[in-house]
Amino acid sequence: MMTVLSRCLLPTTRTPWGYVRQGLKLGLWVLLAVGVVETVRVLAFLNLHAVIPGRVYRSAQPDAEDLQELATRYGIKTVINLRGMARDGDPNAHWYFTEAGANHDLNIAQEDITLSAARLPPPKELRRLIEVLDRTEYPILFHCKSGADRTGLTATIVRLLYTDDSLDAARWQLLPRYGHFNFGRTAAIDQFFDLYEQWLQTQNATHRPERFRQWAANVYTPGPAQSELIWLDSIPNPIPADQGFAVRLRAINRSNEPWELKPGDHAGIHLSYLVARGPTEAAYRGKAGLFRATIPPGGHVDLTLAVPPLKIPGTYALAAELTDARGSGVPIRSYSFVQFGDSATLAEVIVK
What we know:
Helix content is 33%, strand content 24%. It is built from 9 helices and 15 strands. Helix 4 links the parallel strand 3 (78-81) and strand 4. The protein starts with a helix and ends with a strand.
């Protein structure tokens, strides 16, 4: 009688389909193993990759030891921090001062650019990033917190500016292997390049580095979040403490998209304003533009800011800014236009 062991030792007969199935299984295991390795590399380590070998590298937030190793291994001359400059006294800013001190000790230049993983890049920061990339000393390393989203945005920009990549090829820097996913809040990163692609289509053109430069410098706006605010009335200073007042402000649409104003606090674009005696002492908050209207690019809408009596005499600041409750491509929360690099407007209020 044939034992189990002898059956295992004897050659088996496979059909062609059996070999195919075995090959598919092996391929799936290999892909799974590669995926696990990449996931560990992204989440547990520095998520370090070459964007242009020998010149440009991307990573997650490095510590002082990482910076020392990268300076030794790759000769890094400039670090571009995409998380922005931290302020003194910020309890969460230890990473920034550690990085700045390490770069100083290593004689590495540091540039700070403020980007968000959940919003389109502000035009001023985008243009400053390109200026830094053009003028800084190479090799360079740029990073955000995890090396996935803001870093992926910058890596794609680098490939568009300094290589012969097509737009599709450059966007490989936004693949999940780097930790970036095109859904949820971080989809704003992909939306940025969608806007560029849409502009190329309107020009009946394909990507070239000089075309991306032209678009970034002269065309790009972060959705509808670009305005000009003009006071139509002066504040009737001084104002008696028992009297309210109203002033009109003109909001001009300086973006490439129409503004959709809608009734209600949580829909469409509207004007938010604040009256305050100091940085932490808000006296009144209000909103204007809570009605239905469409303002085309270059058009304007006149809005009335109504303020009730401010009963405590003193000097106040009246600040106004536009807000998009649609989230400008990230429909999870409202965003101020200021967060996209637009400007608020201020006026002085004197109460007696």
